[in-house]
Amino acid sequence: HVSLSINSGIQNILRNLIKSQIDKFQAEGGAGILIDANNGEIIASVSLPDYDNNSVSNIGNLQKFNKATKGTYELGSTLKIFNAAIALESGLVRDNDLIDVTKPLKISSFTINDDKQLNFSINLPEILVYSSNIGSAKIAQLVGSKIQQKYLDLLGFNKALDLELIEIGKARFRKDNKLSTIMTMSYGYGIRISPLHLASGTSTIINGGYLIKPSLLPLDEEKKLGKQIFSNNTSEKMRSILRLVVSNQFGTGKNANATGYLVGGKTGTAHKSIANGYSKKEKIVAFTGGFPITNPKFVFTIMIDNPKPQKFSMGRATGGWVVAPIVKKLVMRIAPILKIYPSLKNEYLNKNLINYKIR
Questions:
Q1: CA distances for 205 relative to 7, 19, 148, 330, 355, angstroms
Q2: I need a surface site. Which of 136, 138, 239, 296 has the fewest CB within 10 A?
Q3: What does pTM read for this prediction?
Q4: Cα separation, 203 vs 199, whole angstroms
């Protein structure tokens, strides 16, 4: 007899929402994790395509492969939240420091660009709201490889997580100390992690900076947070910034804004790696975040593998278009089950959020 932390109703909701979006965008598959941000209990874990346990004679390797815990991916701009937190915690970058992002950044043999070129310098919150690769790269340059690697190691992004499953992927990242590597890892290239790694790391960012140990078993004892690697001050700033990514009109995650539930998070879109570099067409898109962001209780991480541009999405297949709508529907459907009630008060009256101004 085994009791799991999985909520079968929420598991079904998450699976159906991801499956629906996979079908809409003609994607190859996807994965999703919902985890308690404070004790690591996994509430739902989805990997698609999946299979029926009652009919296993014709299942293939794709169905058997667990994308949520074993698959590791370059998850794009979702990694910018760790880059920003590391910068704040190190004290080398302040939230109001201005970074020039008005020109493409040439480094080695390639050029770092932004999807939307800005004609003014921006601060750290704006770098995440606009999802600036240039800004993230310049922040990483200021931080340096030693500090960057220290925190990525602390977050467990260099190993397999300890979980009650055989299907566990080992995260890894480049450690060549090249400037180009430092910069590209700041926005999600050169570092491969599983959705479970991303959910666990996101929990640490928003729960006050404490590491958690993911588990599929319910905890009989009081919740125990692990080592604190980011300060409460850094976590408060990151919660405020992640809220703006969803609530601000310029935020890449605005399609995840579930009225009243104060969702915060970060989108990610990355070209898939292939034998000779990166595919121009195939992508991995993702979204990671938590709610209610003023006092985080749950973290979600969702990934879709190779969605195709559609007419209804104006030819776009990014994290903001593909995954953010899943988050909005998910939160509004599971919040009542989790006994989280909507709040229509001014969110910035809450002492746990900073009202950053976005230009």
A1: 24, 28, 15, 21, 18
A2: 138
A3: 0.96
A4: 6
